[in-house]
Amino acid sequence: MLNPCLYKAFCFVSCLLPLSVPTWAFPLSHQREETISREQYIDTYKGIAVAQMHRYGIPASIILAQGCLESGNGNSRLAREANNHFGIKCHDWEGDRIYHDDDALQECFRKYKTAEDSYYDHSEFLRNRPRYANLFLLERTDYTSWANGLKEAGYATNPRYARLLIDLIEQYGLHRFDLIAPQDTTAEQIPRVQPALLLYDFTEGDVFSIDVERRILKTNGKRYILSAPGDTYRSLAAEYRLFLGELTRYNDVAKDADLAAGEKVYLQRKAGRGASELAFWSSVPGESLADISQRFGIRLQALRKLNPGVTDNPTAGTVVRLR
Description:
Blueprint: H1 4-20, H2 38-56, H3 60-71, H4 77-82, E1 97-100, E2 107-110, H5 115-128, H6 143-152, H7 161-171, E3 217-219, E4 222-226, H8 233-239, H9 244-250, E5 264-266, E6 280-282, H10 289-296, H11 300-306, E7 319-321
Antiparallel strand pairs: 1-2, 3-4, 4-5, 6-7
Helix pairs in contact: 2-3, 2-5, 3-7, 6-7, 8-9
């Protein structure tokens, strides 16, 4: 049986303990995660960018500018929760992953242990893609040609992409980092970035993911490419960081379907109906509903529902409803 004196002492201490717990032990409901400024982001990752420049030959200014744009200065969910600063998707990835709404709902993205791993993967991607080979013939200090070359190679669909990179580099003086010698790659030896006067605001539309493309076109608001000789759905799925099943589903074909040169290949789900300017189409000889689906960027199943009396292989001159 517990000694009465000890019992009283225990009760006294138990009453006092809750009062001694510091208030910081309980998170306040109104506390929010601090937003990283662009200057802070650049100062944090400039050392990694310079090291990658000497390892791969990509200008540090370009790496940093892309990191800023594509991660929203490190504030995007992918950057914060998955250390994914370039929006690289899961294709052929056996590591950790995170699911995030992008071109489609809950797409799979790579999750890295560190931000440096994300920078490394981005450099590997550019270095090993044939369409970017000509960029590595440019001078490391020629950030303008690098920015324009990335846009011309189809890196991003935004027509302002090259201009955004160049403006950001010049606004924050990122081209200074392109002059850093290999022996001066520690963060302490790289000059800090001074706060810049904003030339204009960057909107959410200026945050990019590395859905790396060649010549991107649009039909009915949906992105597609034209296949080149030797392309297959499997090779294009790998190139655009998609699962094979995703790409074939976007194009209403079987996973083992053949692909001829010059065909439209949609990189996102097609629309449920046609554009407002064209409500009907008169089929041409040999044209199937699947062909019309690809021509106008409309899902095949949606086209069938719009035309219940039309077969998959209509006769020439059949009026097909598009919306």
